[in-house]
Amino acid sequence: MAILGIGMGLMVLGPTVAIGSLVRNRRTLGTPAQRATLAVLEAANELAPPFRSGLAAGATSGAPYHLKQLLDVESIALTSDKEILSSTENLGAHEGELIPLIEPVLSSGRSRIATLVTCGNPNCFLSVAIIVPVIKGAKAVGTLVILTTSATTGLIRTAEAVARWIATQLELAELDESRARLAEAELRLLRAQISPHFVYNSLTAIASYVRSDPQRARDLLLGFAEFTRYALAEKGHFATLAEELRIVDHYLELERARFGDRLAVTFRVAPEVLGLALPAFVIQPLVENAVRHGLSEGKGVVSIVAINEGNECLIYVEDNGKGMDPAKAIDQLHSTHGIGLTNVDERLRQSFGDDYGLTVETNKGAGFRVSLRVPKWAPRVRAS
Amino acid sequence: MTIAIILIVVLSTIIAGGFGLRIARTTSDFLVASRSIRPAWNASAISGEYLSAASFLGVAGLIMAYGFDMLWYPVGYTAGYLMLLLLVAAPLRRCGAYTIPDFAEGRLDSAAIRRIATAFVVLIGLFYLLPQLKGAGITLQAAFGTPYWVGVVAVGAMLTANIALGGMKSVTLAQAFLYWVKLTAIAVPAIFLVLHLRAGDLHRLDTKGRPEFERTTVVTFPQSTSFTVDRPTPVKIHGTLNNRDLNGTMTLERGQYRAGGGLQLTFTKGELVPIATGTATSSTLAWNSPLSSAGEGRGHPLFFIYSLMLATFLGTMGLPHILVRFYTNPNGRDARRTTLVVLALIGIFYLFPSIIGALGRLWVPQLYLTGQTDAVVLDLPGAVFHGLLGQAATALVAGGAFAAFMSTSSGLLVSISGALSHDLLRRTVVDFRKAAVLAGIVAILLALRVYAFDINVLVGWAFAIAASSFCPLLVLGIWWRGLTPHGAIAGLIVGGGLSSAAIAVTMTGALHGGWPAALLAQPAAWSVPISFVTMIGVSLATASKVPANVSLKMLTMHAPETLGLPIAP
Predict the structure, then answer these.
(1) Structural domains in chain A plus CATH codes
(2) B34 → closest Cβ in A19, A238, A242
(3) For B207-224, what is each residue's pLDDT tens digit?
């Protein structure tokens, strides 16, 4: 019973310890100067993320309140190039006063200190507004307004530093965006490289059936249409294994039209993994590769296999061709010949991480096998 | 004959899982290759993997021991799928997650919650694995008379080896086949037993008071057991009683006795059956009246039942080996259909253990004396039918029991090993095989220690932990956009941690009777609400941490596929 108790204890303790290690260790901090620097840097890091989604998002987050405390002033407001986005206090009568003051700052790009007209509120001691432009690139996109009782040189310079910091965050945001766009473009480029030979060969093969077997020609043409639609589709980078196999079937139908009995294909697909999400147009290049290799030796036999392996799925495509010297295979894969496989490899790594690339097994006289493992689930991967 | 049937079940499982269906699916026809599994088949597979030793052996044992209240176990095990159907099945399938940690990470964009969820997958999986191995121990004990540990170690080692060597990769059709094996193995004997009923037999179930021997009965104690005699009983004795070797005829006076392993007592017809210590039975109320004793919750049957209902209704959705099967469904609609069929299949199945449990009280009351009511399914057919029919029926149920713990344990061990190798130990060099061996060894060692606990009590605890940890995560994750990673982590730790701690305390046997013991023995009634409240409370407090694209995630999970929305990942 005691051992059981200990066992159960450990089973409970395990997760608890895991959590404990997540909680940050707080050590003793250094001198007051070091501590102040740390406080400022920590605050800056904490305030940064909202600004990465744009000035408006930053303004409506908790950032202005933190800035107010950090600068030790009465009130802070953030404006776009048109209107006041947020302010830490209700500005009351001063709000209307600010709008005309912002205009010149935006157009000149220079800071300005303005004396405020006393408002009717007896509790309001605000007398000075420091208006600093937030300049992104070469253009002022907004302003930081500090409302206080007296404008010291130190405060003005600090305000300018804060405005520059906000501008930097906004520029970083733009960088993030363009990086995402670049990745998108890269993915689009990687996708769908139908070989021109294949298009030509398919169309001639179809043409040869038009008179002798019009029904078959029609089916082949529809299959070809489906194939190109899939390959050139704009939406969605991911597809299910079932969709991938359907495209492979259209492709094989076209190859069979050319090669007839010389090409034999077997499928061995675990039905559990048909719903697997993977980058679109990953399997077809492997099959095309296998068909090319397999047919180099008279009758070609191509196997397409998908095995259910717990949290992952193992897929491989192999042929019975004459194979290749491993050293030569490596050379070929890195040259332009292997563009299809390299492309697939790159897209797999982009989607699932570097643990999930293509593996090629071959030797002279031993055929050619390309295999890949795909996790059943990965962050941000979903068939659409 | 029994050995032959068990061997057939084991071998066909291994072969079907490893090779058989691979050959069947090799085809040059694309249409055959890309045919997805139909909901009815997937439902059979889910039922096959779900109906464990707890269902096959344990339910009948509990009903025999504690009366009709225990019908809540099969009701709860089935109703869990209703919750799954209503709240989880389709949205979870649409979000594309394979395991619960996948769901947690995808929904909340947090790697930390993935690790914690994985730890709970392992914990719940182990808790569920222990009763399966206990089932193996007592099945071999009943069939061949081997000591308890032999069955645990032999079956545990066989399972571990099979999975570590790559067999039994939870092939859907193999598991579906096992459902029908189990249903046949329990339905056929049960139907024969019902046909065997005579007028007046059922009336005896209605009477108050204790069961009696209906004919002269020889009782053999497989291992040392304490029991209580309530009125002077004449017996023929052979073996060790109260540490004395006895042989001959004597009268057992009122009091406590300790039987040595191998002791044989022969009782005459009409004598009251003495009761093993620790197995409560309804001695004051009629066995078939509600709230009579309610097993572990003895003093507080009503609390026990409500807590059990909460645990089983809400725990099913958190079982690691069940949810992964929904990945096989091509879409949310099929996931829902599958669940519906599962409800029907499981509902039909549970009819039979309940019948056998009740008939066990009539025909094998000696199990009350040996304390082995869990073995009623195995012992009853042999006790009622003699000759070839008896042997055949015994062999059939033993084969079914084997199928039961083979299929469930395989699914569990695959899930645990997957979680260990894929997540928890990823940075180290532990691969799937080593993880399977590690999990197998831990499970065997723990299972050797749980002989004293009813199979269903152990399973009930696995459900309680699942209901207190994963149920809130799934329900809130799917239906409430305000859930934050912080809230989910807090809820998992508080709910799952408290329920696990309560069960750990109960297992050490430190508490006896009273409210504290009742509250800790079946914690779901308080730990599930606490978990929900923690998750909601902490989420509200950290509202700024709600994942940015939560609306898109909600749309992905809830929009029917037929709308054809172009949802980007």
Answers:
(1) 35-187 (3.30.450.40), 191-375 (3.30.565.10)
(2) A242
(3) 666 778 888 888 888 778
